Amino acid sequence: MPFSLWLSLAAVCAMGAMSPGPSLAMVLRHTLGGGRMPGVSAALAHALGVGLYALLTVWGLGAVIVRLPALFQVITWAGAAYLAWLGIKALMAGRAGALNATGSATSRRQAAREGMLVALANPKLILFFIALLSQFVTPEMSLAAKALVVGTAMVIDAGWYVLVAVGLSHSRVLPWLQARAHWLNRLTGVLLLALALRVVAGPLG
């Protein structure tokens, strides 16, 4: 995979990880309730679940591209519509959402278990990855390239949520984020809408 194409992959993976939702709320809750390490445990377990969905999506997309190209196009458009819906939802969220999560007593094991469950119990991740990875998966893609795609999704997801857990373990960070939640939601919404348009436009070169 060319480096420029990988940078595009990394950018859209980061966009997906940073979008507010149940995953962010879960990491916030464990960080606020148990401190830095439960938050980090939740983040790493969540990344494993994301990696599993990314792996399934890469395999599935490769097969669909080869055998049912028309179905692949329909699936891609459905993924783009989902991204657009996420973007509109973020734009309408205002100050509310995951940044208002409160903490509850927790342990590393509980945090890791919930981190994995939140990822695996969210089938919408499949839709997100279909829209995302349809831009990068090709019929002739090598096993190493597929592994790079999956690894990139995992590492970026883990890196973002670990950063959230470490940052929010400092008491002054969360109020700062809460005060700017509407701007974060607006930025995320615009980026997701832009990604939806990029998906409709066709695969990246």
UniProtKB/TrEMBL annotation:
Q: Which PANTHER family match?
A: AMINO ACID EFFLUX PERMEASE RHTB FAMILY, ARGININE EXPORTER PROTEIN ARGO
Regions crossing the membrane: 41-66, 117-137, 143-163, 183-201
GO MF annotation terms: amino acid transmembrane transporter activity
This protein's species is: Halomonas urmiana
What membrane topology does the UniProt entry give? Multi-pass membrane protein
Mind telling me what this protein is named?
A: LysE family translocator
GO (cellular component) term, any one: plasma membrane
The answer to whether the entry has keyword Transmembrane helix is: yes
Q: Is Transmembrane among this UniProt entry's keywords?
A: yes
Q: What is its main location?
A: membrane
